[in-house]
Amino acid sequence: MPDADETPNALGPLRAELVVIRAQLAALSHLPDRLAELHKSVAREQERAAFREEIIDRLHSENQQLRRSEVEAALEPVRAGLYRLYDYARRESDRWALAGKENPDQHDPQSDASLYAMFAGQVGALFAAFAEETIEVLGRTGVEPFDVAKGERYDMALHRPVDTVPVDDPAWDGLVVETVSSGFVRGEQIARRADVVVAQLTGR
């Protein structure tokens, strides 16, 4: 049997190891609090990152909108010139096409009247092709023409009255009787109202 004096000496290393374990456990007791602080810190960083992303997205969107506005502003005078060019080409096309149909000497294709009618028809077709080409160019700037049917109710948002025609029939009062110039739309917005002649009841 070991001596009584040897027992305390044998337990000495165990006591020292227990002291170390207790110290380690005491240090680990603060771990949940530190993990909670770390979680809060990570959450704050995520909020900051999300806020930065939101600002970047908003700045990008505003920059794109500003660029679109600048492009639209630069295109407006170009469109205005193309509108006038299209109106002129279409009017000349109609005028020359009508002249081409008026041939007083249809029995002699070599007469001056027949040759003029043929020439007028060709010029009318040339102006019509030019008008169509102008429409295609306008389409590339984002606008398209819209049709106004005869008998359509006058709408100040779509039509610009350039003249009136007196009528006796109340049913025609306020209706479009002629389109002078086509209107144009850009998406769902009216880029240019159509110039129209509106019927007006006699005596109003």
From TrEMBL:
Alphabetically sorted, this entry's keywords are:
Chaperone
SUPFAM superfamilies reported in the protein's UniProt record: Head domain of nucleotide exchange factor GrpE
Residue ranges annotated as transmembrane are none
Q: Which InterPro entries match?
A: GrpE, GrpE_head
> Which ranges of the sequence are coiled-coil?
none
Q: Is Chaperone one of the keywords UniProt gives this record?
A: yes
List GO BP terms, alphabetically. protein folding
Please provide an example of a Pfam family that matches this protein in its UniProt record: GrpE
Give one GO molecular function term.
Answer: adenyl-nucleotide exchange factor activity
State the protein's name: Nucleotide exchange factor GrpE
From which source organism is this entry? Actinocatenispora sera
